[in-house]
C-alpha cells in the first residue's frame, strides 16, 4: 500500500463505500479496515439490500461479492445498469473463473479482486478505484459545465442584438448568428461561403475591401468601420452597421469543416443612431418650419464662398429679403396661418434660385440668399426682380387670398464688404432703405447708406426710452364739422430722444412693431392720455372723447381687456368717453378671442373705431356682427376731394355705408376749407387734420380755440 497516495486521496475528500457480501465476519473486518484509513463505510448482507441502499444513497465505491444467495453480484450489476446507478464497482469473489471475471467486467465492474487477499492489496485496489471515480466525477462535472457554458454562449450569440459572424481567410462567412435574419432578412445558412463584400452596398465596397485588407494585417488591433449592408429583399430601407473585427490567430479557434477561421466580428445596426444624429445635425443647421438652412449654416457657406471668391477674383452677392406687412397678417390671421405663409413663401423663393445658391431663413419673416457666382450687378437685379414678381402673386391659404410684398437689400462682394458680417449688415441696411422709400422693391448697397444703422441704435434706445419715460403724448383735435367745436381728441405719441431730438411716429413706430415693443408703448400711451384727460375733467375741462390707437399685438395679449379696465378704474375716467382705434386687418381673421375681447369692452361702454378704413382688407360682414361704432376715413381718400363737384367716390361710398349702418364717421387729413365744405355737404359729423393746427398739448389746444376759419388763417396747411 502506498500510504502517501492514500493520504492524498483522503485529503481530496471523504470517499463513501458500500460493502455487499453475505459473510458478516468479512463485512466487519473490511469495514473496520477501510474506516481506519479514512473511508466512510456502509454494509449490506446480500444483493437485495445492496440494491436498495444504492438507490437511496449515493456511493462512490461498491465492493461487491459475486457469490451471494438470493441475488448474486452479477444480478446486482445488471440492476445497477438498468437503473443507471453511477457507482464504481470492485468485484471481490472466491470464484476465479475467467468467464465470471469477464462477465463482471462486461457488466461495468472496474476491477476484480480474488479471495483471499492481502489488506494492502485491497487498500491499493480501493484507493485506485476511488481515485478514478473521483477523476471521472470531476470530468463529468467539467463537461457539464462546458456544455452549460456552450449552451449559454449559443444563447447569447443567437439572441445578441448584433450580427455575430466569423470569416475565413478568404473573407467569406463561415458562421453567422440568427440576428442576421432579423436585421437583413437572410437565413444564416444562405450566407455561408458568401464574401462579406457581396452584401455591402455597391458604393461601400471599395471602403470595405480596404478595411478587410487592413484587418488581415499580423497585429492584434481591433478595427471598426461604418458601412451600409444590403437587405435581402429589394425596397427595404438602407441599413447602416458598425462592423467591428478581431483577428483570430492559429490555434485559438479549432478549424471546422477543414476551414481556417481568420476573423471574428460583430455588426451593430446603427441606422436609428445615424438618423438621430442626422436629425440633430439638421436641427442645428436648418429651420424646422421651412426646412431651409438657418443663420448658422448660411454664415458657414458664406464664409466659404467669400474665401473662394477672393481666391478666384470674382463677385458674389448677399440678398436680405424681408416680407412687408407680415406682422399685420400674422397678428390678424393668427400665428398658424403666418407659419403656413412662411412655408409657402420659402417654396416660391426656392424656385427662383439656382442649385448652387443658398437660401436661408434668417429669422422671423427675414430670408437671406447667397449667390456665390455673380457675373455683374444686372444678373443680381434679374434675380431680385424674379423674387419680387413671385411674391407679388397672391397666396391662397385656407380660403384666404393673401397679398404680400417684399423688400430686398443686396450687398456685393467685395464692394460692400470683404467679410461675412459686413456683407450681411450692409444687405440689411439696403433692405431698410427700400422699406423707408415705399417697400416692394430692391436696392443695392452703396457707401452712402451706412447711416441706416441708426435703425438698430433706435431699437436699442427704445428699451431705455420706455424705462425713462421719454415718450410724450400730444393730441389732435376732432371737430364737429357742423358747429366747429372740439368734441374729442386723438392721442398721438412723440419720442423726446436725448440725442436726436423730438421724433415723429413715422420714425419709430415701425421699429417698435418689428421689435414687439409696440404693446408696451401702447400701454404707456393709453395710461398717460387717460390720466391727462381725467385731470382736465377734474379741473373743469369739457368731457372730450379720447381716441387712442391700439396695435394688433396689444389686442392679442391675454391681459388686453384687463389692462384697459384697470387704467380706467385707476384714473377715474368714464369708459363712454374712451374710443380705441384698431386696424381692420385685425378683424379679417374672424378670431373668436378678438371678438370676445371687443364685446367685453363694448359692454362697459368703450367705443371701438376702425382706423384708416378702406386701406386694408375691408369686409362688410365684421361691421355688422362686431361692436364697431366709428369708421375713420384715411387721409389718402380725403386728398381726393379737390372740388365740391369732383365726386370723391370712395369718400362718398364710405360715408353712405356708415350712415346706413348708423355708425359715426371721423375724416382724417382735412387740410383745406374746400375739403371741409365738401365733407359738411356729405354730412360727415367729425373731422380732424392740419386745418385745425398741428397736434399739441391739451392746454395749448384749448387756448388757441377750435374755429376752423380762425385756425385756417394760421395753419401752414391752410387752403
TrEMBL record:
SUPFAM superfamilies: CheY-like (SSF52172), EAL domain-like (SSF141868), Nucleotide cyclase (SSF55073), PYP-like sensor domain (PAS domain) (SSF55785). Residues 455-709 form the EAL domain. The keyword Phosphoprotein applies. GO terms for biological process: phosphorelay signal transduction system. The keyword Phosphoprotein applies. Keywords: Phosphoprotein. Residues 314-447 form the GGDEF domain. The modification 4-aspartylphosphate is found at residue 65. Residues 149-219 form the PAS domain. PANTHER family: BIOFILM ARCHITECTURE MAINTENANCE PROTEIN MBAA, DIGUANYLATE CYCLASE DGCP. NCBIfam families: GGDEF, sensory_box. This is Diguanylate cyclase.
Amino acid at each position: 500500500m502506498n500510504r502517501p497516495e492514500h493520504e492524498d486521496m483522503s485529503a481530496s475528500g471523504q470517499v463513501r463505500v458500500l460493502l455487499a457480501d453475505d459473510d458478516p465476519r468479512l463485512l466487519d473486518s473490511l469495514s473496520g479496515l477501510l474506516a481506519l484509513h479514512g473511508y466512510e463505510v456502509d454494509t449490506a448482507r446480500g444483493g437485495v439490500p445492496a440494491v436498495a441502499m444504492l438507490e437511496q444513497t449515493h456511493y462512490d465505491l461498491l465492493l461487491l461479492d459475486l457469490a451471494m444467495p438470493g441475488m448474486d453480484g452479477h444480478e446486482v450489476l445488471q440492476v445497477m445498469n438498468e437503473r443507471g446507478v453511477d457507482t464504481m464497482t470492485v468485484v471481490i469473489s472466491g470464484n476465479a473463473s475467467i468467464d465470471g471475471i469477464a462477465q463482471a467486467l462486461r457488466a461495468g465492474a472496474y476491477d476484480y479482486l480474488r479471495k483471499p487477499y492481502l489488506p494492502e492489496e485491497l487498500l491499493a485496489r480501493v484507493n485506485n478505484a476511488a481515485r478514478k471515480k473521483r477523476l471521472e466525477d470531476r470530468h463529468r462535472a467539467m463537461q457539464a459545465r462546458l456544455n452549460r457554458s456552450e449552451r449559454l454562449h449559443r444563447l447569447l450569440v443567437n439572441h445578441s442584438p448584433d450580427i455575430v459572424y466569423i470569416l475565413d481567410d478568404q473573407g467569406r462567412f463561415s458562421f453567422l448568428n440568427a440576428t442576421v435574419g432579423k436585421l437583413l432578412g437572410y437565413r444564416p445558412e444562405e450566407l455561408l461561403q458568401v464574401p462579406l463584400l457581396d452584401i455591402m452596398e455597391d458604393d461601400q465596397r471599395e471602403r470595405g475591401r480596404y478595411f478587410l485588407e487592413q484587418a488581415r494585417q499580423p497585429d492584434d488591433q481591433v478595427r471598426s468601420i461604418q458601412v451600409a449592408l444590403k437587405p435581402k429583399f429589394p425596397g427595404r430601407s438602407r441599413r447602416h452597421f458598425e462592423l467591428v473585427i478581431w483577428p483570430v490567430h492559429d490555434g485559438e479557434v479549432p478549424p471546422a469543416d477543414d476551414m481556417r477561421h481568420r476573423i471574428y466580428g460583430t455588426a451593430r445596426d446603427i441606422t436609428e443612431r445615424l438618423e438621430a444624429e442626422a436629425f440633430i445635425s439638421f436641427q442645428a443647421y436648418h429651420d424646422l418650419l421651412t426646412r431651409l438652412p438657418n443663420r448658422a449654416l448660411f454664415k458657414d457657406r458664406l464664409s466659404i464662398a467669400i474665401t473662394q471668391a477672393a481666391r478666384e477674383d470674382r463677385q458674389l452677392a448677399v440678398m436680405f429679403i424681408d416680407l412687408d406687412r407680415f406682422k399685420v397678417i400674422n397678428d390678424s390671421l393668427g400665428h398658424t396661418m403666418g407659419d403656413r405663409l412662411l412655408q409657402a413663401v420659402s417654396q416660391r423663393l426656392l424656385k427662383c434660385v439656382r442649385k448652387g445658391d443658398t437660401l436661408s431663413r434668417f429669422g422671423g419673416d427675414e430670408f437671406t440668399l447667397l449667390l456665390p457666382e455673380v457675373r455683374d450687378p444686372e444678373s443680381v437685379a434679374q434675380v431680385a426682380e424674379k423674387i419680387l414678381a413671385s411674391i407679388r402673386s397672391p397666396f391662397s391659404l385656407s380660403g384666404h387670398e393673401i397679398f404680400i410684398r417684399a423688400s430686398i437689400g443686396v450687398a456685393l462682394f467685395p464692394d460692400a464688404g470683404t467679410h461675412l458680417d459686413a456683407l450681411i449688415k450692409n444687405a440689411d441696411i439696403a433692405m431698410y432703405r427700400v422699406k423707408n422709400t415705399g417697400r416692394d422693391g430692391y436696392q443695392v448697397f452703396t457707401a452712402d447708406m451706412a447711416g441706416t444703422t441708426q435703425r438698430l441704435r433706435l431699437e436699442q434706445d427704445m428699451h431705455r426710452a420706455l424705462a425713462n419715460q421719454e415718450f410724450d403724448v400730444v393730441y389732435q383735435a376732432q371737430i364737429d364739422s357742423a358747429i366747429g367745436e372740439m368734441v374729442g381728441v386723438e392721442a398721438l405719441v412723440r419720442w423726446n430722444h436725448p440725442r436726436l431730438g423730438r421724433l415723429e411716429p413715422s420714425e419709430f413706430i415701425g421699429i417698435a412693431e418689428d421689435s414687439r415693443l409696440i404693446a408696451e408703448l401702447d400701454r404707456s400711451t393709453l395710461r398717460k392720455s387717460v390720466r391727462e384727460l381725467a385731470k382736465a375733467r377734474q379741473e373743469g375741462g369739457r368731457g372730450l372723447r379720447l381716441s387712442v390707437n391700439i396695435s394688433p399685438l396689444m389686442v392679442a395679449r391675454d391681459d388686453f381687456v384687463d389692462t384697459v379696465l384697470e387704467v380706467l378704474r385707476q384714473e377715474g375716467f368714464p369708459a363712454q368717453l374712451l374710443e380705441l382705434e384698431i386696424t381692420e386687418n385685425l378683424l379679417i381673421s374672424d378670431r373668436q378671442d378678438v371678438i370676445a375681447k371687443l364685446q367685453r369692452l363694448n359692454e362697459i361702454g368703450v367705443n371701438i373705431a376702425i382706423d384708416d378704413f378702406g386701406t386694408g382688407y375691408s369686409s362688410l360682414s365684421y361691421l355688422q356682427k362686431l361692436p364697431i361704432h366709428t369708421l375713420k376715413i384715411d387721409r389718402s381718400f380725403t386728398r381726393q376731394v379737390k372740388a365740391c363737384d369732383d365726386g370723391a367716390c370712395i369718400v362718398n361710398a364710405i360715408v353712405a355705408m356708415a350712415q346706413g349702418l348708423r355708425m359715426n364717421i371721423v375724416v382724417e387729413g382735412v387740410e383745406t376749407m374746400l375739403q371741409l365744405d365738401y365733407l359738411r355737404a356729405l354730412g360727415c359729423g367729425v373731422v380732424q387734420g392740419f386745418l385745425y393746427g398741428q397736434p399739441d398739448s391739451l392746454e395749448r389746444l384749448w387756448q388757441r380755440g377750435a374755429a376752423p376759419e380762425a385756425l385756417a388763417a394760421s395753419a401752414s396747411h391752410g387752403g
